[in-house]
Amino acid sequence: MKEITILSGKGGTGKTSITAALSSIAVEAVFCDNDVDAADLHLILQPEMREQYIFEGAWVASIDADKCDGCGICQSNCRFNAIHFLHGQYEINPYQCEGCRLCERTCPNGAITSTRSRNNEWYISDTRFGPMVHAHMGPGEENSGKLVTLIRNKARELARDKQASYILNDGPPGIGCSAIASVSGTDQVLLVIEPTLSGLHDLQRLVKLVNSFRVPMAALINKHDLNLEVTKQVEIFLENKQIPLLARIPFDDTVVMAMIEGKSVIEFAPDSTITKQLREVWRQITKEESLTYGKSFIHHN
Amino acid sequence: MVKKIVVASGKGGTGKTTVSLNLYRRFSMDGEDVVLYDCDVEEPNDALFFPEKIMIENKPVNQLIPVIDSEKCQFCRKCVTYCEFNAIVIIPSVKLAQVNSDLCHSCGACSVACPFDAIIEKPESIGQIAKYDIGFGQGLLEGRLQIGSSMQTMLIKELKNEFPEQGSLVIYDAPPGTSCPVVETVADADYVILVTEPTPFGLHDLKLTVELLDELEKPYGVVINKSGLGNHETHEFLSRKGIEILGEIPFSREYAAEYAAGNLFENVPEEFETVYQQITGKVGHHLAEL
Ligand code: SF4
Ligand code: SF4
Question: Residue A124: which H helix or E strand, with range?
Answer without folding.
Answer: strand A120-127
